[in-house]
Write a structure and sequence with these properties.
Blueprint (H helix, E strand, L loop, with lengths): L41 H16 L4 E3 L9 E4 L9 E21 L2 E19 L5 E7 H14 L10 H13 L5
Antiparallel strand pairs: 1-2, 2-3, 3-4, 4-5
């Protein structure tokens, strides 16, 4: 998946559907643990909309608020082929995991790199939706992988953390050679 910019926003945009800059590895801000959202209000809904716009523009299938330098427990995902099934999860908690799957993963914060990672095949997640209502969702396959990947971001963890130190160092060196987006 192609990446976005490496610059970080200092405030959440008030422009409708604003594209947000995406932090890239090894930026230390990606290691910040996200804090829970106290309540889903208009500001949170605007952030969700901006995150979806950013994710679709990247293009990607998932994005955590931590990746746009907003350290709140919010993720958005859409694994549909038509990009018409957006899912926002506020304060997500993965309650149940079953089975294991190995799949190649990429990340908007680690542009151009894909590696095989092992994760749960099936999950049940509890969260608040864009409307602030609590819900539970069962997911498997790619959706389960994507939710787990984005929830890792909320803990300051990246998919490269599942790789060997040698592979992580190789990715870090290659990313350092890329031109910086402005």
């Amino acid at each position: 998946m192609p990446s976005g910019c490496t610059q970080s926003p200092t405030v959440v945009s008030s422009n409708p559907m604003a594209k947000l800059p995406i932090l890239t590895f090894p930026d230390p801000r990606l290691r910040t643990k996200a804090r829970p959202v106290a309540r889903v209000d208009d500001k949170v809904r605007q952030l969700i909309d901006d995150m979806l716009e950013t994710m679709y523009a990247a293009p990607g299938i998932g994005l955590a608020a931590s990746q746009v330098n907003v350290h709140r427990r919010i993720i958005v995902v859409d694994v549909s082929a038509e990009h018409d099934q957006p899912l926002a999860l506020v304060n997500p908690v993965i309650e149940v995991t079953e089975g294991m799957q190995e799949r190649e993963e990429g990340c908007l914060s680690v542009p151009g790199f894909y590696e095989t990672v092992e994760r749960a095949e099936r999950i049940r997640v509890r969260a608040l939706g864009r409307d602030g209502e609590s819900f539970e969702k069962e997911a498997d396959g790619l959706l389960a992988l994507c939710i787990q990947h984005e929830c890792d971001h909320l803990e300051g963890k990246l998919f490269v953390d599942y790789l060997s130190n040698l592979k992580r160092q190789r990715i870090r060196k290659k990313l350092a050679k890329l031109p910086k987006a402005s």
